[in-house]
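Dear support,

We are seeing what looks like truncated structure output for some complexes. This example has four components. We would appreciate it if you could run it in full and send us the complete token output so we can diff it against ours.
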Amino acid sequence: MSRPVRKKAARKTPAERSAEITDAARDVALEQGLYAVTLRSVAARIDVAPALVAHYEPNMDALIASTFGTVVATELAEVAALLAPLPTPRERLAQLLDTLLDGTRADVTVIWVEAWAMGRRNEALAQRVRDEMDDWHAFLLGIVESGVAAGEFETDDAASVAWQLLGMIDGLNAHALVRWADSSSDLGDRGARLGQAVEGMLGIARGALTGP
Amino acid sequence: MSRPVRKKAARKTPAERSAEITDAARDVALEQGLYAVTLRSVAARIDVAPALVAHYEPNMDALIASTFGTVVATELAEVAALLAPLPTPRERLAQLLDTLLDGTRADVTVIWVEAWAMGRRNEALAQRVRDEMDDWHAFLLGIVESGVAAGEFETDDAASVAWQLLGMIDGLNAHALVRWADSSSDLGDRGARLGQAVEGMLGIARGALTGP
DNA sequence: TCTACTATTGATCAATCGATCAATAAGTTG
DNA sequence: CAACTTATTGATCGATTGATCAATAGTAGA
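Here is the complete output from our reference environment:
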């Protein structure tokens, strides 16, 4: 005979409560994926009535879209911060591949994959996905172009190369999502192997990226 | 006042009806994705009561898993048949990249992406996904190894290269899913650009794959 | 202290989903 | 033609989902 333990949620500032809901949605997404971000799951996580979440958000499609956006934007900011101190484009690129393919961010990968699927039925989300992809592309493009300018890389179409890089990274991560426990896919070696492909794309000598 | 037009479905052989259901599920998946494969959508497509579909399938998770399997296995068979007549591994690889990246199979790409996401909540599907990935990997591995044997390719880890190839293809296709109307991603050029990366991975001279 | 505002809730709806089961009717067999 | 098998159905259940709305109860300002 256990009744719901919640009596009544403490009254908070709209700004506070809104942030709380946003954070809860992000946590649910990171832990269980975008499909688990529901009116009730978000409400339960902050011990509040489902109607309150609905009160603060225009609709669930919007909350899911914004949740995707903040998670992915945060990821990009983290990676950018990680690469910033590195002196050369070559080192930044090597570090980028390393950190994105080490399996540490599987929770974010799930969100990407789910977003590609969900985007077909959630236009707000689809738009956010395109926006975040553009941001990531711009980031990669910056690295590639600075490398070309420094004479480290060689390509006649940096923008296209940047898209290819992004596609490779996402594809390999999506695969790892399903086969993470598989030794034959050689998780530890993914970065190095992709490095060889990238060396090919950028006209770098073999090992220049994966080596020291 | 339009009542349902269906009076009573013609009685059919279990084998016939079962095949009909299987086909309907496949069609729904190709047209609207795996998430649209529901008891009712499949039943409606062949003008039959939802309970009949439930009668023929153990449960929807199983039907979705087997639907994924047949769609993807068919795709592999088609591609294999397309490459079979080509004389050299280099030509087969070039053709493979070409046909898989020309945007013709977006419907199958949707199914792949949805399967990666759904697999986390549908163990039967997850197993099928791994199986089909293994089949694709084996297929690519065959091409790579024959190329190495013929002296056209050069690598010390063909299995790993095959996984990388698969990951790249899937990632680029997933991206195209969201940005199909985008000219900046240069759909037509995807194959050629990936070709350069692959040339790098396999130690082929630039242009040997993308050229004539 | 009293009043106005509004954050919060419970109740409730309509959709959609997978699943079960007794009843019906179409064939098949003897 | 009668008896039997079984393909097919309608009805229905329980879960989930997003969403709405009148009622309630903190809180700030007059």
